[in-house]
Amino acid sequence: MSQHPLCFIIMPFGQKPDPTGRGTIDFDRIYHEALEPAIKASEMEPVRADEERTGGIIHKPMFERLLLCDCAIADLTTANANVFYELGVRHTARPATTLTIFAKHQPIPFDINFLCSMPYDLGENNAFDKNESRALREAVMQKLRDLRDLTVQQAPVDSPLFQLLSGWQPDIAHIKTDVFRDRVQANEAFKRQLAMIREKGKNRGTRSSAHEELKAFREKLGPLDAVDAVTVVDLMLSYRAIEDWDGMIDVYDHMPEILKRQILVREQLGFAYNRRAGATKNEIDRDTALHVLTEVDSIQGPSSETLGLIGRIYKDRWKEANDVQEKLSAMGHLNKAIDAYRRGYLADPRDAYPGINLLTLLDIQGKKESIEEKNRLLPVVRFAVEQRLASGTPDYWDHATMLELAVLQEDPEQALEHASNALAVVREIWEARTTANNLRMIEAARKERGVDTSWLEEIVKELESKGL
């Protein structure tokens, strides 16, 4: 067990829009390039909340980390509601050792502007390049070292609750802290093990080994109601990475009810049922997927993620009906897929996933009004992806979307460039297969219209080989 103090990081995840209108903010980059190395250089061990794995729910291990970690850093940038809630919990339990930081171009909300918070610079258009990351890293490192020194000497109070209520003294037993530290170490080890299994699942030569290791890992965990929620969701997504749809569904079936109700988990359940239906041609699975996702849509309202998954179900049904020459059924499913992707795109035009699928299906539909709609929306979808590319941390889907846009515009040179970028960052085998299937659909529709698509064959074949 590590003897280093634990430092809990409270911050948003992934890329978030900047409320001031500047470029998106990449919080993962801020963490990995500045906060994490600063904490380690201060001889502390970083522990980050896993909001991206649990849909943001506050679960028991989260409260334990907020209450029991030796130090905490809270990034107040974008005034994220979860961050403020967690900071409030921390200030209720710990009188000191909480460092608040924020991007200096954004004002801190009035209710907490009395805190002694540390500003940092995100750089032009929030690019957060090497200069900004180095400056934040060094500043946080110095603050944490000073904080540790001061704590040894006088334990300065930084919680406003402890400052205002002198008699407030919650009792946290030392034995509880020791048990917590052991659990954190175990959970971090679980995360590393699952990450290694997912990495093996990418390669054909080690894929069967990944399946066996994940099966053994699952058996070792035992009943899931006794396991950290983060690990449970990570397990479900690890089954997704190796395309084990039965495994995803089984994990869901054995989850505690609080996790089963989470939007992220239910979206992944719908995803798994639909993918299993694609492999087995079992329409009951397809119906189940649609029921799960439609229920999520009715509860939370329009969402680009949920509607994108619903659009995929109807797109699969369209393709299957089209393959067996059921033209009228195929036309109905295509209309429903277009409608779902359109609703998803309009729910959040920054999310290019439903947007590119909408453009592709409009192109395949080929009607005059469909082509006109495609031509109107294509520059808007491209702009959304270009903004993500400019952020400096694009993922597979960003490059794959640019590839599909280039194909829709019949630009072989750009298509080849974006295909090479996408192939270099494939994370999970089903991703490349999804893109290849989309390009095959475009290719078939173009051939029916007498358009030469021979230049596309090399790209599709290489994507298909990645997805084997």
UniProtKB/TrEMBL annotation:
Domain MAP3K TRAFs-binding positions: 83-454
InterPro entries: MAP3K_TRAF-bd, TPR-like_helical_dom_sf
Protein name in UniProt: MAP3K TRAFs-binding domain-containing protein
Source organism (scientific name): Candidatus Entotheonella gemina
Taxonomic lineage: Bacteria, Pseudomonadati, Nitrospinota/Tectimicrobiota group, Candidatus Tectimicrobiota, Candidatus Entotheonellia
